[in-house]
Design a protein that fits this description.
The chain is built from nine helices and seven strands; from the N terminus they run H-E-H-H-E-E-H-E-H-E-E-H-E-H-H-H. Helix content is 53%, strand content 14%. The chain starts with a helix and ends with a helix. It is globular, with a radius of gyration of 20 Å. This is PaaX family transcriptional regulator.
Length: 258
């Protein structure tokens, strides 16, 4: 687990409802049970500041950092997808995005990764598609310096769902159903303190589940087969995360000195 990714999980899953800020020492305490050492935390914080995700703030518990407006928007959008809140109804139309890619190769690579993360798939060169308009599109384009035109489509000669690797996604959800319980039990048994164990177990659960955001565009049920394993996997994730939340909240409160 990379420290930067772990920090996004901490701020998004634990600090977003607690003012979106924390002293550095508290963040270090939170990440210790999941194997992220203090130097790695501080290095990742520095990088996230330079990337515009965090900003310094003076707190009662010492020097700390809070998420920027841009980061809060991304964290809220990600949380909605992770916990499948406010799922929109599909009206049968598709959003098509015609991208004018940036000149720099690094910016093009970032753009492709960001578009995939927020739920688009590349239908043809520089033509991206999604069953829903994505609120994150403008910020994704701005971040890489790209421009785009959008259109709505009623139908295609062949289903756009083929732009996503649904066979691979199915296999991923089936694997998840086979390992989720073992993942949680492993981390519950690795810590003597019950609340710390709950935090570590839930942290790894959310971290692994969050990886589906890179591969699952959140297609509406009407476009998925009746036996789609993502439904069962989402139910298992939600029930397990809920069960672990009370102990997790107590541990976070301890780390924050609350």
């Amino acid at each position: 687990m990379q420290a930067r990714s772990a920090l996004f999980d901490v701020y998004g899953d634990h600090l977003r409802t607690r003012g979106s800020e924390a002293p550095v020492a508290a963040v270090v305490r939170m990440l210790s049970p999941v194997g992220i050492a203090a130097p790695a935390v501080r290095t990742a914080i520095s990088r996230m500041v330079s990337q515009g995700w965090l900003e310094p703030v003076h707190l009662q518990g010492g020097r700390g950092y809070r998420t920027t407006t841009r980061a809060n928007r991304r964290l809220d959008e990600t949380a909605n997808r992770v916990y499948r809140r406010d799922l929109p109804d599909w009206d049968g139309h598709w959003q098509v995005v015609f991208v004018e890619p940036p000149a720099a190769r690094a910016d093009r690579t970032r753009l492709r990764a960001d578009l995939a993360f927020v739920g688009y798939a590349e239908l043809a060169d520089n033509v991206w598609v999604s069953p829903f308009p994505r609120a994150e599109l403008e910020s994704v384009l701005d971040r890489s310096g790209a421009r785009a035109r959008t259109a709505r489509a009623d139908r295609f000669s062949s289903p756009p769902t083929g732009a996503w690797d649904l066979d691979g996604l199915r296999a991923g959800y089936e694997d998840w159903l086979g390992i989720a319980d073992d993942l949680v039990q492993h981390h519950l048994s690795a810590h003597d303190d019950a609340d710390e164990a709950a935090f570590a177990a839930r942290f790894h659960l959310v971290h692994e589940w969050r990886k589906f955001l890179f591969t699952d565009p959140g297609l509406p049920d009407a476009l998925l087969p009746p036996d789609w394993p993502g439904r069962e996997a989402a139910t298992l994730f939600a029930s397990t995360a809920t069960r672990l939340k009370p102990g997790t909240d107590r541990f976070v409160a301890r780390c924050l000195g609350a």
